[in-house]
Amino acid sequence: MKKYFKVIDNLWKRLIFFIVLLFIYFLLDLSIPFLSSKILDEFVLKNLYFKNVIVLLLLYLIYNFLNFIMSNIYSKYFKDSFILVHKKSINRLYNLNYSDLTKYSFGKISTIINIDAFNIGEIPDYVTDIIYCWLYILVVMIIFIKTNVAVALFVLISLIFYMFLANRELKIANKHFSLRRKMHDNLNLLLEQTMHGLKEIKTSNIDLFLNNEYEVKRDEWAYEYMKGRKHFLNYTINLKYVIFITKIILYILLYFSFSMKTISIGLIVLLVKYYDEIFINAETIVEKSSDLQEFYISLNRMYDFLFNYENNEIVLSLPYKLSDNVLEFDDVTFSYNGKTILNNLNFSVKKNEVISIIGDNGAGKTTMFNLVFNLVKPDKGSIFINGINTLGLSKEKLCQNVAILNQDAFLIDISIRDYLSLSDSNINKQKQICKELNIHDFIMKLPKKYDTLLKNNGSTFSGGQKKLIQLAKIFLSNNEIILLDEATSSLDKEMTKNVINLIKKNKNKTFIIITHKKEIMEISDRIIDINQYK
User: Fold this and answer.
1) Arithmetic mean of pLDDT, 468-480
2) pTM listed for this prediction
């Protein structure tokens, strides 16, 4: 449970009161049937004490009240637990580096953040339920032993036999259901491929191959489903016969004990009630133990995601440079999968310079920007911003100094106004920048104008319109250094001219621009060909 405590921090301490209440609830759960049997004996003997009836009523009221209180306590704990773990995992997602991305697919990330965070919240409930059930069975077995050893031995053998069969059938069923989910995922993957290749399917006979693939995967799914269903039905239905038959035998044993006047009617009722509860608790143990194994898989996966990663903490011994350069690459070499992308990259940028970066596709232009933001780390060499090694800067510090417009920049689902406000919330400034980029008139023609939502990565806008909105946010920022990765690639000449005018206007900023456009190169102070650093 150490991993659990680390994942949820100190939140677990709030369960202490819950556990205290659970212990009281446990005592009541045992006491109520016992007092009920005593009242039944008094009734048979016509010597009923109404005081016991009143006590039973009070115990029952307290029992149900505790159940209500505990449910509320755990509901709040579960809610806070899910929110805490979800927040931690989202923050971890923000800090994933490229080496992490090779480990985690979108599907795995989605499972960890949404499903595993939920499952982790269930762990204390399942653990306490299992412990509760075992304790209940243990105490009840002691009562059976003190009442009648032979009956107790029979109940114990019946219980072991039932739990063995139930655990085996449920484990096999879950194994097949797990395989069924994999088969379902395979069908989804094939469906995704079909959606992407519809044009090819319509213009060729590839559908004959796909139909065969679908048939195979459907058969695999059906096989796992039927096998799992068979064992699940054995568990849920056929094993009930075990309980039914053993209960009949219990009735016979208790009848003989009653005929020998060794037990009373009330005690018979109590033992039958306890017997039923034993098997109910045994069923709970089997089911929740099976589910708990899945939850522990979720816990281990979340723990690895949150804590088992490359240490990106600030290193205090990082070199510092006294320099007038706002940005400097000092003998930087970077390789990926054994291939050298950048080799001994050396150049510096002075304040207020405009630098164009050119090079072939795959030459490492975008990688250079990734290195600035520590998305990847150099094999050797250092990158400095105002003399400070970037590896010693937090993401917040980097974002205060540098603004970047990535080539594949993403628009989140917020309004245009809110998006621009991420840089500057002054509405007049927002409108002025948009006017200079010649996007203001387009925005004003939208039904909600600047309050229009940028849904689905701005899918309702053209590539040029999206890029201009993104550029407006960049030019509104107060950052000293601006990195633009092919920012004008989807813009026509007139749009590009507006961007150039804004670059010229912002003489107090330093621009480093990855580009293939001559118009951008012509306004640059220097052009750096990245091909020379291969």
Assistant:
1) 88
2) 0.70
